[in-house]
Amino acid sequence: MEKVVATARLDRLAEVVEGALPEGAELVEARFSGGPLLTLLVDRMDGPIDHEFTSRLSRDISPALENEGYDGMVEVSSPGVERPLTKPEHFRRFVGCEAKVRVSPPISGRRTFVGVIESADDSGFALKLSEEGEGFGERVEVDFGSVTSAHLKEEIDK
User: Which of 22, 80, 105, 133 is 20 to 30 A off residue 140, Cα-Cα?
Assistant: First the structure.
């Protein structure tokens, strides 16, 4: 029951944060990290995710969170190179990019897939498998409801 309450509370806090973000900024992911630390991964279309931006966001978002009864610490950061894909629009935006996706229940006996996002709509997306081995080059259709985690896969040696 505690996890359900924490999830419902996190969903509400994420909603409040989204409402407090400036135009051009997007909440990619909200999660509790190490107890009461609320970690917010934020992206923006109109500039860098630098220290000045994240500090300003922390100051701007804190009053809205306090109004919801949250008085814990808040950490705002960039989603990073291996950016989480948490919404259907993320998959649409990153068509043509490589992603690592975990699903449950398994699809064709597999839970983890690495491939290039070929297409995406409101219900799911298609990956062309890019990892050498079984299924290389195959197309896999994935419903968003089965995704347990997904993120862009960035090659460091590019």
Answer: 80
